[in-house]
Write a structure and sequence with these properties.
The protein is of the alpha/beta class. The chain has two domains: 40 residues, no CATH class; 190 residues, Rossmann fold, CATH 3.40.50. Helices cover 37% and strands 14% of the residues. The strands form two sheets. Strands 1, 2, 3, 6 and 7 form a five-stranded parallel sheet that branches. The termini are far apart.
Length: 238
């Protein structure tokens, strides 16, 4: 297989050379990002192990998690939500830029995953009305290549968004919690393993992931982790 992949990669680079989505320069390392822009991506190397909140140094639990532990068990977010990753994310999520989505997916695949491996990945679902409007679920499209890279199955229909909610973007933490309360449910008869990951593109306050985690815990899932491509560097949580 490798003997076939290398010539195909060279052919792709010749016919459709990688081009940086941020500055327009030549891309590198099989990405539509140049080396300079890729070097600016904000890595989330120092963070809370419980909620992935960016911190000056890595800790087991930040102050917010110590005061009120989240309903999940551990979090992984390899990037901080900041320049220039936030620009790629906005183009992917709201601008239907699938090239940006492929680049974000590839960046996530290149990150070092947690040691504890789940048996299943569940992307945070969109309501059917939002799915019709956007045309795709950005969390699912990131989960599929990551699941293949890690050899972890991905289920797109394990969780349902049972009612439509307004966009979380302009809401504060308390309003976000109210907005998603009771908005998710398990599909009837969906068997779940004891260790499940909830996956989303960006984690801000964690309200959406927390509501999904509660649904899984009530269904008897022993361990629920949350994975997001990027974590917003905000201390206003839960």
């Amino acid at each position: 297989m490798e003997a076939l992949v290398r010539p195909l990669s060279r052919l792709h680079a010749w016919l459709l050379p990688w081009r940086c989505l941020l500055c327009g320069d030549a891309g590198g390392d099989g990405l539509d990002l140049c080396h300079a822009c890729a070097a600016e991506l904000p890595r989330n190397t120092s963070c809370c192990a419980c909620c992935a909140l960016p911190l000056p140094s890595a800790v087991a639990m930040c102050g917010a998690c110590q005061r009120k532990p989240p309903p999940w068990d551990a979090a992984w977010a390899p990037f901080r939500y900041g320049w220039p990753l936030d620009r790629l994310e906005a183009r992917y999520k709201f601008g239907r830029d699938l090239a940006a989505g492929r680049t974000l997916a590839r960046l996530w695949q290149c990150a070092v995953p947690p040691v504890a491996r789940p048996a299943l990945i569940l992307p945070v679902p969109l309501h059917r009305a939002r799915l019709r409007q956007r045309g795709y679920n950005q969390a699912l499209e990131l989960a599929r290549p990551l699941g293949r890279a890690l050899d972890i199955p991905v289920r797109h229909d394990g969780l349902l968004r049972s009612r439509a909610t307004v966009a979380q973007t302009e809401l504060d933490a308390a309003a976000r919690r109210r907005n998603v309360y009771g908005a998710f449910a398990l599909r009837d008869g969906a068997p779940l393993p004891p260790h499940v990951v909830l996956l989303d593109d960006v984690m801000t306050t964690g309200a959406t992931l927390a509501e999904c985690a509660r649904v899984l815990k009530r269904a008897g899932v022993a361990r629920v982790d949350v994975w997001a491509l990027a974590r917003a560097p905000s201390s206003r949580q839960r």
